[in-house]
Amino acid sequence: MRLLPPIFTAQSAVSTFSTDTNIQSKQKLYLTLTGAQLPKDQSDALADELNTLYQSVMDSLGSDDARYIQRVHATVVYSEIISRGLLAAAGRMPSKRSLVATWLLGTSLLSFSKILNNMELGHNVMHGQYDWMQHPYLNSQKFDWDIVCPAPLWQHSHNYLHHTFTNIVGRDHDVGYHLIRVTDEQPWAPSDRYNLFSTMVLALGFEWAVAFHDIQISADEYADSPQLTEIMRPKSRGLFAKIARQVGKDHIAFPTIAGLALGRRSTMTTLSGNITANMARNLWTWAVIFCGHFTDQAHIYTELDTNESKGDWYIRQILGSSNIQGSKLFHILTGNLSHQIEHHIFPDMPANHYVRISPKVQAICRKYNLPYNTGRFGRQLRQVIGRIRHFSKPSAEEWQAYLQSQASESTHAAKEEQDDAPVIRGLGKHLPPVMRQALFYL
């Protein structure tokens, strides 16, 4: 049985689009676009074909899809129970070798459970992909996943902002996550020299970046609103309540229970296993997300076309996304975000259908001469790291512009920060600005 669609080699949009269009390319490798990519009649025809494909899948949903997501949920629950039992039991093993082997098995199984919970279950359920089931908790309104970010905050920053304004600089805040420069449309600053180090920190603590992401977005979005405090206070309260639950569960409750039941060594094996599993989940999630959005040929946009049609929106999703090739298990562990193109054009379609429709989406892209960016995981990850390294260094023009504006802008920014920054005393003043904002509104 074929598990993967036929490979459609990634193409460069440089050769795909003629230079007499209104597309403006600022770099040969990392493309920045503005305006429509196809004439209106072609984009409308493309939209009709994709709409028909979407409707055919949604009309076919039924008991098989319901059983699938329920099996995924059961796998998450039982693998977590077994893994936590193994981590606690590791502390009672008679030899160091058996302790290490049991700990590794428990940690690996807990990492698997957390990845599956985060990707194939949580991400897809909270996108509303299974709301049609009317399940009591496997729906976008009730489900909450096993990370420190509350579902409502993620749904605002991701479901709404990211999927509506995909790859538009200044509108889609997932372009760099306020930390990493990934396009020349983001002005270079000296801190960008540490792009690779910042990326490593981001990857290891990705759930924390996701958790505070919407706080940063909302503070900027509503900065001039008189309702700023009313908007930010419930967000901050919800965030810190979720952090308390997650930290309490993984770092206090389970280690304490294991220690009381089986001894002090079980406390340490449980705590270390939980920390390692969370970091493994964070690294995996970061890698999948960045490989889906920041490869060489992932297009960045400078503005939102006020006359953007549904077809234009589809094209922006296709050009701004990248797929990853792999096995059936690989696709499941990515939450089928290895089919990022299909996910971005059909975010509320149950993700287990993406692999089946992928050849049809490729055929439509080929018909309209649109690039369909796909590649093996290692290849896509190398391109992501290469892109991050590339934008850590300024061009000659960017360096001169920085030198010319450094004095006046730094003085103005320092005064503005001093005037507007929330006042947090004690240890809190050493936290990153977004955390200080969250604490202030809490």
Automatic annotation (TrEMBL):
One of its GO terms (molecular function) is oxidoreductase activity, acting on paired donors, with oxidation of a pair of donors resulting in the reduction of molecular oxygen to two molecules of water. InterPro entries: FA_desaturase_dom, Fatty_acid_desaturase. One of its GO terms (cellular component) is membrane. Residues 102-374 form the Fatty acid desaturase domain. One of its GO terms (biological process) is lipid metabolic process. Signal peptide: none annotated. This is Linoleoyl-CoA desaturase.
